[in-house]
Amino acid sequence: MEDILLLQAIERYLDGTMLPAERAYFEELRNNTHEIDQMVVEHSMFLHQMDSFSGRQTMQHSLQNVHAKLLSMGDINEGGEQTAKTKVVNIWNKYKRVATIAAAVGGGIALMISTLVAYFNPISPDVTRLGVQLKQTQNQVAALSNEIIKSKIPTKAPITGGGSSFLIDGKGYLITNAHVLDGATSATVYNEEGKEFSAIIAYKNDEKDLAILKIEDEDFQPIKNLPYSIRKTNADLGDEIYTIGFPNFPRTDVVYNVGYLSSVKGYNGDTLTCQIQMSANPGNSGGPVFNKKGEVIGVLSTKLSKADGVSFAIKSKNIYQLVEDFKKADTTSSNIKMLNTTTLNNDDRVSQVKKISNYVYMVKAYRK
């Protein structure tokens, strides 16, 4: 009985019919109870699947109604007069060659269209990318922020998007999402103090949705050792995690958020990513996801469109493969060295965040 009441409460929470006081109490209960939070996520996804099923059922009923109407009008015959069958057979024999060719061409076109859709829009409509997409000049974007007045971006250069990034090597190599750089030829990055540095797009892998930026700016001072490490293996289910990024784009105030690893696989069983229970917003794309030891366990990339607090991160082990591919493509990149040990293991969360924040950068991507 208690389970039924809980499910009823979850449904009222999801459809917005809870009173404000009850909703506030339920959200506090959800934040403090992992099992209830997971039930909310699973029930939200279940309701979404039911909506899809309902849509298919409605279409089926509509087709059945049309079929019945055509039968009643005599436009089609299910029962069978031989003459009707003979006409159908004769028509088929007369035009089957044309129909076969048309079917083949139609099938080829359908396959080509589906392939192009998959290539140019690989993300499911149920999943939203967390990069900021823009079609504005530097002056227009700067007008949105009181912090950045001057910029190293050419005045008339269109800014294509933005997001977050983080250093993987103190010599100026950063990781972000490939989709943050869509349509761009260059980028600038900003630290939490608002200092801007010019960067180049050194390497991209659209399939893995990861990219490497390289700061090339005389104002940048290389960093000898980064305090965090990049984890080579999968994080553990239930691990408490946190992220640092720039969801308030184009402002450079860094934002901290916390959650936990809710699945070792991503959307629809994707093994490239993992699922994290944490809210995320446009601008968070490319931001690092840390565990309590101060290890990067993923790169925040997308979120579930129709469920609050369900996000996805590309697993950190893919960063190592990306760097290896980069080294093969560009021999000058052989000096990239990523630390596999963290110095943050014994620090409390506040100390960790203070030490990490200055190595996480906001990205502005633009086209020259």
Lateral arrangement of strands in the main beta sheet: 9-10-11-14-13-12
Q: What kind of assembly state do the chains in view correspond to?
A: single chain
How large a portion of the residues is in β-strands, by DSSP E? 25-35%
**Largest β-sheet summary:** 6 strands, antiparallel, barrel
Distance between the termini: 63 Å
Low-confidence stretches: 79-92, 98-121
Overall geometry comes to globular
Structural class category: alpha+beta
Rg from alpha-carbon coordinates: 26 Å
Helix-strand sequence: HHHHEEHEEEEEEEEEEEEHHE
**CATH topology heading of the domain at 128-366:** Thrombin, subunit H
Query: How many DSSP helices?
Result: 7
Task: Report what the structure shows.
This protein is of the alpha+beta class. The chain has a domain of 239 residues: Thrombin, subunit H (Beta Barrel). It contains 7 helices and 15 strands. The protein has a 6-stranded antiparallel beta barrel with strand order 9-10-11-14-13-12. A 6-stranded antiparallel beta barrel has the order 3-4-7-6-5-15. Strand 6 and strand 7 form a beta hairpin. Helix 1 crosses helix 3. The protein is globular, with a radius of gyration of 26 Å. The chain starts with a helix and ends with a strand. About 10% of the residues have low confidence.
